[in-house]
Design a protein that fits this description.
By secondary structure, this protein is mostly helical. The chain has 6 helices and 2 strands; from the N terminus they run H-H-H-H-H-E-E-H. Pfam families: PI3_PI4_kinase.
Length: 139
C-alpha cells in the first residue's frame, strides 16, 4: 500500500459526493467509511507499545489513556463540547493521558455548524483499540 491523502480518497470515491439525495448519500457514505476502515486500520495502539516498552509502564499508560478518555468523553458530553479532531485531542507522551484543548465549541454549538456534528463525543476505532482487547468494556 501507499499513503492515502484526502484528494486521492475523494477522487476514488467521487460518486458518493455527487448525489443530492440525502438517503442515498448516507448509504454510500456508510459503505465508503467501511471500505476506508479496511484501508486505514487503527494504529495508535502500536505507538503505545513502542513508546512504553516496559510492560508495567505500558499498562499504566494505557490505563491513564483509557481513564482520561472516559472522563473527557463524559465531561464533553455533559457540556456539549464539539469540534473534536486531531488538533484538539492530544496525548501526553510521558504518561499516555488524553488531553483536550480548544473549548470554544461548547453547549452543543456543533449542532449548528454548516455540517452539524452528529456524535456527542469521539470514540473511534483507534481509541477503542488503544484501550485494549476489551475496548470500552474495561481493563
Amino acid at each position: 500500500g501507499h499513503p492515502l491523502n484526502t484528494a486521492d480518497i475523494k477522487k476514488r470515491h467521487e460518486p458518493i459526493f455527487n448525489t443530492s439525495d440525502k438517503s442515498v448519500k448516507t448509504a454510500k457514505l456508510a459503505g465508503f467509511i467501511k471500505a476506508l476502515m479496511v484501508e486505514l486500520p487503527p494504529v495508535l495502539h502500536h505507538w503505545f507499545v513502542h513508546s512504553f516498552r516496559d510492560p508495567a509502564a505500558w499498562f499504566e499508560a494505557r490505563l491513564a489513556f483509557t481513564r482520561s478518555c472516559a472522563v473527557m468523553s463524559m465531561i464533553g458530553y455533559s457540556v456539549g463540547l464539539g469540534d473534536r479532531h486531531l488538533e484538539n485531542i492530544l496525548i501526553d507522551t510521558t504518561s499516555g493521558v488524553l488531553m483536550h484543548v480548544d473549548f470554544a465549541c461548547l453547549f452543543d454549538h456543533g449542532l449548528n455548524l454548516e455540517t452539524p456534528e452528529k456524535v456527542p463525543f469521539r470514540l473511534t476505532p483507534n481509541l477503542l483499540h488503544t484501550m485494549g482487547v476489551r475496548g470500552a468494556d474495561g481493563v
